[in-house]
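Thread: sanity check for a docking pose with flavin-adenine dinucleotide

Original post by kr_44:
Hi all, I'm comparing my docking run against an independent structure prediction. Below are the sequence and the ligand SMILES. Could someone generate the full complex and paste the structure tokens? I mainly care about where the ligand ends up relative to the chain.
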Amino acid sequence: MRELRAEALVIGGGAAGTYAALCLHRQGVAPLVISKGLVGKSGASIFAGNLVISGRVLGNTEENARDTAEFLIKYHNQFLIDQEYAKRCGQWIAEVYYPELEEAGLYLRRDDAGNVVTSPGRLRSVAANVQGNSGVPFMDLRRKQLIRAGIPMLEEVVVTALLQAESGEVCGVLALDIASGEIFCVRAKAVVLATGYADRLHRRSTGTREMSADGIALGWRAGAELVNLEMQWWHTNDVRYPANWQRMQVYPNPMLGSWKSARNVNAKGEVFFDQQEDDPLAFGPYTVQLKRLVKQVREGKARYDGDYYSGFDHVDPAEVDAYTTYAKLFKQLGLDVGRDLVETAVSAHYRQGGLLVDPATMASTVPGLFVAGGVGGHSNGLIALVTYDGKVAADSVAQHVRDRPYASLPPHKAEEEAKRLQGLLKPGATPPVRVKKMIRELMWNDMGVEKNEAGMRRALEGLQEIRAAVLPAMGVTNLTKIMNHGWLDAIDAVNMVEACELMVHSALNRTESRGPFIRTDYPEMDNESWLAQNILVPTADGGFRFEKRPYATPYFQPEFVRKDNLAVQW
Ligand SMILES: Cc1cc2nc3c(=O)[nH]c(=O)nc-3n(C[C@H](O)[C@H](O)[C@H](O)COP(=O)(O)OP(=O)(O)OC[C@H]3O[C@@H](n4cnc5c(N)ncnc54)[C@H](O)[C@@H]3O)c2cc1C
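Reply from moderator J.T.:
Ran it for you. Here is the predicted complex with flavin-adenine dinucleotide included:
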């Protein structure tokens, strides 16, 4: 088997992975980026609509800066975040991130007078070119920066296992080149896992095709502790039909250069969410909207998979068109943005949880394995935040690799993993794509917006049955190794079962409701018991146990101990 070498290996070509690679390169460490999709064009990063302004930049007042920090901690993470990390991150975004991006040539949208256009209000944001499309120019820039720096990238290559030395230290990976079918290893002094969080694990999801919770499965198999896996975020305003538009969003955020934003209307034509009146602080008011939707669903006026509507029929279309892409999808659907509403539905969006890391270093609990971005369980992300993680991970890796020799790859482990992959390239009764669909249906039905113990136990049984009976019978019709997406689906399906089981276990263990995590059998948010990390610790017998670790709340505190989650604004 061919073996490559890289001082530091970065897995993932999104905002976090690309910035980690750039920072490593600047520090004289030679990185290699491996990405399952194209670098800068796969994962969630290209979908970012706009960029939040933190600190005092671009005319932010002290109050704006405070509101933004409060939004991040309260509305965006429901207090499940290290507030010192949030503070450091906010400072870095203000002092380094924006100046560096502008210097590198990212165009932040200006008005005719040359001033950067922002959304007004308590939380302000900017856009790269147009709101709704910021991720594309941003990630194009990152791709070009990597190319210019001569950082090697292996694209359409999937990492399927972390390889560990006898000591347990991660010293490389095994990977499959999707285009050629070659299985090879990479030896590295440190690995940065940056595989993102928007995984496609539910019937409706904002995740892209290649996002199958690989990072969670890889980390878990290597013995990493996981945290808050149950904290799944939902988009409430995504287009219901056509189905392949399920991540196309009717953005509810305030528009650039306007005080207006999209409203939600139920099946009876009643407005049930209007940000201007209902929630001026929540810049991304997804959880606030979700809670409103839950009430509509319970009253029979909407469903999670449709029968409610979103749009800008209360806004002058010129205002929508000025600085946003929001009207485009209406046009493409043959609708009039100034008059029509579009039917919307819920999609599984971010996962707040992931690998447990020390947010000061982005080190995981496995030596040699560092984490950047959405796959970590330390924050719910946002493009600027995951970029900061890339910098922190790179700083730690640069220290870690200094004067460190390459550890030898354990040959039998690489062979075992190669054999496992080859074993999935076989004929069988059930096509992998059907298995993925079964998993997504099951997750949607019993691990959807509203959950309870009975449903989650059913989900667990279903997943265990898939693991025991369906995975062994899974097989592909085409046995070629070249560009075989059936084979890749089979590899994905194994990871999905693994990650989904862990998510259900974690959800069963968090006996409360919190923001987007809604349990009908535990409807209260419980800050006495559960303002805490819900940690899955792997045990020597191949099982797991839970640990709970409270979060400190030095700057912002919840204003109650226990309260009906649906009655909490955030
Ligand atoms: C629809 C949508 C709208 C959003 N809007 C905004 C917004 O307006 N503002 C904002 O700040 N943020 C927004 N976000 C969030 C933001 O995009 C994320 O925080 C950020 O992109 C996460 O970056 P990441 O690098 O961690 O992961 P990703 O960008 O998801 O990158 C993951 C990378 O890992 C690779 N990968 C996965 N598995 C493997 C494997 N096994 N082997 C090798 N490579 C692998 C993928 O190919 C991909 O390159 C939005 C996200 C979505 C989905």
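The pocket of flavin-adenine dinucleotide is lined by residues 11-17, 34-37, 42-45, 47-51, 135, 158-159, 194-196, 198, 206, 210, 214, 247, 249, 373-374, 381-384, 386 (CB under 6 Å). Hope that helps with the comparison, let us know if your pose agrees.
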